[in-house]
Model the fold of this input.
Amino acid sequence: MQQPLININQTHLNKILFALIFTFFFSNTYSQEGYIKLPFTKGNCPTIIIEKNIIANESVTETKKEWISEISVVKDKVNRKDHKFFNLTENGIIFVRLNKKVAFKTQNELNAFFGIKENNSVYVNGYLIEHPDYKIATESIMEIELIEPDSDNKLKSKAINVWTLTKQERINGCHKQNVN
Done:
């Protein structure tokens, strides 16, 4: 008589089932607040915020080290109610305080430039900016897309997506390769 390859009795099956249900419940508990993003959004690049409300990219922080007065990092998921930057945190946020002024455009200015309502939605790297006081560092703007509503993105009106990432970073992510 041949032995079965897997011998699972009812007790083991119940434990496995319980573990799966517990894992599913636990993971859903922390994912109840979803990120509002465009359907093509992916990547691992953190959002960089200068002076609490200017969204930028690494080029602003790589200029001169003496211009950086403070850096802090948020890696964990925060809650939407307490943090106006919640929707920008999926890949972490780096807050930077600089000893220099950074030129920027407001969301209203960008919308007006594209001839759409000033209060229309603005996305950065595919993530909705949920608060109107965020600005975008002009030297960090790599590309701006005018997004038309369609069945994939489910937008109600035109929106702008500002890329602060290069095309290479959008495809390969932000981890720099070590070259020896």
